[in-house]
Design a protein that fits this description.
Strand content: under 5%
Structural class: mainly alpha
Order of helices and strands: HHHHEHHHHHEHHH
Number of strands: 2
CATH topology of the largest domain: ABC transporter involved in vitamin B12 uptake, BtuC
CATH class of the largest domain: Mainly Alpha
Largest sheet: 2 strands, antiparallel
Distance between the termini: 62 Å
Number of helices: 12
Helix content: over 70%
CATH architecture of the largest domain: Orthogonal Bundle
Shape: globular
């Protein structure tokens, strides 16, 4: 396995981990099955790419991409809380509508980012090699996101958001506006998804209308892999686990592709990998139950042997 492949997978994992952190907010914290992700990701890419092509500062364009993603999450939350549309359907409606919105923003299906200033070229302009520049952009972005999320989720409003996902009825009885918490959580989650889309567009060198397909599977796989392998004993540990889960996921994909997997089968592999990860808790439970049964059987056998000897 070439070192360049691992480095490439590591850098991509860092950038994709921002999307995974957004999915973590909606899926794990808020307990909301949100499909807006598949529209918010290309939305971020479309906004960032369009802004950069128009001469906007890449930092400002990336920030604007995040704001637009938050607006998309707000729409999903509004559909769910105010219009009483089920969570899954709310996400589907927002995702479908965003396809047209993204085309409007881009003006065409694909925007190349050639010979323009991006976050990556800003770092390489400091005399840093391209592959190192990508890692620096990813590390800095992820570190800032984790620091802000760790702080926010430890505030009073952050605890209210977490409690809304754990037990909405209880926290509503304590006087918390759960509708507002749902909208807030979806806005934050989809803002991060769009932020990831904006950064990945600059990394890939283009924004494409179809680049959001399958992103929800990638995000969920990263969250589940991280939780299974590294645990979730605290908010900080959970967030870091998501990042490592994203990196491991990208490395797995890179290794399998290097072994000869057809690129068009990556989506299938992602689905199978996610299904395996989601079923791991069940397997662990069954293995634990079998271990307990064997342990009990040994105790009974030992006791009977002692009685016979007596």
């Amino acid at each position: 396995m070439k070192l360049s492949i691992i480095i490439g997978a590591f850098s991509q994992g860092l950038m994709w981990s921002i999307l995974a952190l957004g999915v973590f907010i909606t899926y794990k914290i808020l307990d909301f099955a949100d499909l807006t992700t598949e529209g918010a990701y290309p939305l971020g890419a479309a906004v960032a790419a369009s802004g950069i092509i128009a001469g906007m500062n890449p930092f400002l364009a990336t920030f604007l991409a995040m704001i637009c993603g938050m607006a998309a999450g707000f729409v999903t939350g509004f559909l769910n809380t105010k219009l009483k549309i089920p969570p899954l359907l709310s996400g589907i409606l927002a995702m479908t509508g965003l396809y047209s919105v993204n085309l409007r923003i881009m003006g065409k299906a694909n925007i190349p980012l050639l010979k323009v200033s991006t976050l990556i070229t800003f770092v390489t302009g400091l005399g840093i090699k391209n592959n190192i520049a990508v890692i620096i952009v990813g590390l800095v972005s992820v570190s800032i996101v984790i620091a802000i999320l760790t702080w926010f989720l430890s505030t009073e409003k952050g605890y209210a958001l977490r409690a809304t996902g754990d037990n909405m009825s209880m926290i509503r009885a304590l006087g918390v506006n759960t509708n507002g918490m749902v909208i807030l959580g979806l806005s934050i989650g989809n803002g991060l998804v769009s932020l990831s889309g904006g950064i990945m567009a600059q990394y890939n060198g283009y924004a494409d209308i179809g680049m959001g397909t399958g992103t929800i599977v990638i995000g969920l796989a990263s969250v589940i892999i991280g939780e299974v392998l590294f645990g979730s004993s605290s908010i900080l540990r959970s967030l870091i686990s998501v990042v490592f889960g994203s990196i491991i996921y990208r490395i797995i994909i890179a290794v399998v592709l290097a072994k000869g997997l057809v690129p068009t089968d990556v989506k299938l592999l992602s689905s199978v990998l996610l299904a395996v990860c989601l079923s791991l808790p069940l397997f662990k439970e069954k293995i634990s139950a079998l271990t307990d049964t064997l342990h009990s059987a040994k105790k009974v056998k030992a006791r009977k042997a002692g009685e016979q000897n007596a």
